[in-house]
Design goal:
Elements (H helix, E strand, L loop, with lengths): L1 E3 L7 E2 L4 E2 L4 E8 L4 E2 L4 E11 L4 E2 L4 E3 L5 E4 L4 E2 L4 E3 L2 E2 L4 E2 L4 E2 L4 E2 L4 E2 L4 E2 L4 E2 L3 E5 L2 E6 L2 H24 L30
Parallel strand pairs: 1-4, 2-4, 3-5, 4-6, 5-7, 6-8, 6-9, 7-10, 8-11, 9-12, 10-13, 11-14, 12-15, 13-16, 14-17, 15-18, 16-19
Antiparallel strand pairs: 19-20
EC number: 3.1.2.-
GO molecular function: hydrolase activity
Keywords: Hydrolase
Length: 199
Amino acid sequence: MTCYSLDGLTPVVDPTAYVHPSAVLIGDVIIGPGCYVGPLASLRGDFGRIILEEGANIQDTCVMHGFPDSDTVVERNGHIGHGAVLHGCRIGADVLVGMNAVVMDGSQIGARSFVSAAAFVKAGFSCPEQSLVMGAPASIKRSLSDEEVAWKQAGTREYQMLAQRCLQNMVACEPLAEVEAGRQRIADRGLRPKGSGPQ
């Protein structure tokens, strides 16, 4: 990872978390146990504090940032999809934030809620637990079923396993010049179940 201390504050990464080498961590960033931080993610603790709690994932090209003295928090088992932007907000435990969603300052997303892909959550928004939040600007559409939450939880467990796979098995390499005969798929190796939760 690309990691910078700023004004005497150095990012903290739990040894059981995986942070991709292309991700950038600056200053007051705290990454908890079992977290996954994807390629090109930017976690900028240069004004406020950035926190990923245990088991959370923040995927490729996501941004976490906030105003001075703010906390931008993804609580335990939070699941942040590709390209999402979180700014000065609190994402509750077991929440799914969809791809390219934006969640603004002072917003609080209740536990086990979904923020849909491409949603724009205005500053100061809040929702109760287990809500479906959609639109631009976003609003609460309905409550989520326990089955929908279980689907999300399955996807989050995959990212927790992916963090461990990456810590153990990912190595830099040169690409092959051609496809090998009988090339296997990841699923053929029994590393992840087919048709599971959100990616």
